[in-house]
Design brief:
alpha/beta; single chain; globular
Length: 275
Amino acid sequence: MSDTNSQIEAAAEIRARIDTTTPHSARFWNYFVGGKDNYEIDREIGDQIKGIFPGLVDVALSSRLFLGRAVRHLIREEGIQQFLDIGTGLPTADNTHEVAQRVAPDARIVYVDNDPIVLAHANALLTSTPEGRTAYLDADLYAPGTVLEAAAQTLDFSRPIALIILNTLGHVADYDQARDLVRRLMAGLPSGSYLVISDSTATSEGMIAASNAYNASGATPYYVRGVEEIAGFFDGLDLVAPGITQVTSWRPDPDVPAGPTAASVDAYCGVGRKA
């Protein structure tokens, strides 16, 4: 069979895995940040939730801005030039590799997701500067060993790596399991590596109501957690100042628009270093 036929069959298999009859978290988030890779069912639940809690749009936008600030800080201040981004989501503006390679052209980035809608758009995540490298893994958060082994084909595990997990751990229903997955991933990274996490939090009645409405839609559930639970993911790590805080308050950049005000955002984040 020719390479062309194999590629056509692979693309057809990916499309067959995409369910357009129920809302999807990656497409739903894509709609909130102004993207075009979503369907009517995603826009319907998005509009419903915006009616319940408009602040969820601020969470989506401000979380994206936090990603950029965290990546730039890690490169400029901590000397990190390798990133393992799990739960990638759909490509939008200022993806991790774009932010990183703008500052450090030789940066290496591995994206990890096991979602067919993300896989279908993975080529947009595979652009790179000539000096750097990017890769996409069709792999699962629930298999840390597999993720680390595959990432080692692109990343140098003798040097520190930043593990990024944004707005993804809420999909793991059991908190202890979510903590264990983070622990196992960090255990496989060298000393001097960093953990970057942000997630929506149960810090207002509006956010809790929005989460309940989303979970009732038929989409893969997303469980908002308390701030102390977000902090628990960083046990054993040295937190970078200002510690666990709202995404809008983590090292705001005076040269970049601040986005929503801190008081309006039900999402917390942190960056921690492995000794």
